[in-house]
Amino acid sequence: MSRSPRFRIQSTCVLMLMLVPSLCFSSVFLHQTPEELAAQSDLVFVGKVVSMYSSFNGEHDINTYVKIKVYETAKGEPRSERLVVVPGGQAPFQGSTYRRHYHGAAAFHEGEEVMVMVKIIDGKPVVQYFGSRFLLRTNEESGEKEFVREVPPNVEIIEKDSSESSDGQHTHRISASSAYMTQEVYSYKDMMKRLHERKGAK
Predict the structure, then answer these.
(1) From CA 27, how far away is CA 129, in angstroms rounded?
(2) Checking DSSP bridges between strand 27-30 and strand 155-164, what pairing results, if any?
(3) Tell me, what DSSP letter sits at residue 33?
(4) Among 178, 182, 147, residue whose Cα is nearest residue 23
(5) To bridge 115 with a disulfide, which of 14, 29, 46, 94 should be the other Cys (CB 3.0-4.6 Å)?
(6) pLDDT under 70 in the chain at which residues?
(7) DSSP state of 2
(8) Nearest in space to 116 (alpha carbons), one of 79, 61, 156
(9) Using CA atoms, how far apart are residues 63 and 87, in angstroms rounded to an integer?
């Protein structure tokens, strides 16, 4: 029996959904400035990623543990090193390797310099999502240090609108969405000055 054109079209659509899920689904996050995010965080510091490993936790899920040599602390108790937790990762179990991916989770790499904003959750220092990690780099043209917040592909950023809806709640609008990675760039000098000023004002 020959397949009808309708069946072939449906089969093709299913195959496309299986092969290209990243084009069909996205995650939505509320946009927060670094200052807003720092105010809600328990720890804010700058340092270098020295090691990483992933393992199963007590809830049958996988976490990645990132050890950071701390250069400067903008919020929280100063320490020479910090170990932070990132949801997801890849870990072995009974001879097999399992991978747990959270869309929008922060991504770290050994040797990079970063600023992280950490929330203590159930006693664990958690980097909740990509917006809490800022890459520290030197601008090739100016030679000045800068922070870069990388927004992953297929992530929609929601911004609070200044207007109010009829029910008295602030409305929201989509402010950014891209199939490619985008970046927000901030001056290192200005950012650290503002964070330290907020710390001193408390």
Answers:
(1) 11
(2) parallel
(3) -
(4) 178
(5) 46
(6) 1-26, 160-179, 200-202
(7) P
(8) 79
(9) 5
